[in-house]
């Protein structure tokens, strides 16, 4: 990247790099930008985690899934493709792998929740 290109990515106020809220290679999740500790604490108290359309190729989704399972929650992987999350949860008892699109799955879930509300 040239100096000119880099300059276009700099904050006019502080000169820091402007960035989308994503993790670059060689960076680590932290509390300040990614709420790492908060997310993992919430995961420990999660009853059902829906992992929808994620490859699971990065570490944070995997940590969240591990925490949910370790503390007694259920994990439902919704994805049309095999992925790292499904590989991880397949042998677990409290896990379901759902090979549907997010559209299909969320539509069905919505119908189920609406039906439950009318009971
Ligand atoms: Zn700035």
Question: Could you describe the 3D structure shown?
Answer:
The protein has 119 residues and is α/β, with parallel strands linked by helices. The chain has a single domain (30-118), classed as TPP-binding domain (Rossmann fold). It is 45% helix and 12% strand. It has a three-stranded parallel β-sheet with strand order 1-2-3. Zinc ion is lined by residues 11, 13-14, 16.
Blueprint (SSEs and pairs):
Layout: H1 3-8, H2 31-34, H3 36-44, E1 48-52, H4 59-70, E2 74-78, H5 84-89, E3 95-98, H6 102-118
Parallel strand pairs: 1-2, 2-3
Q: Briefly, what is this?
A:
The chain has 119 residues and is of the alpha/beta class. 45% of the residues lie in helices and 12% in strands. It has one domain: 3-Layer(aba) Sandwich (Rossmann fold).
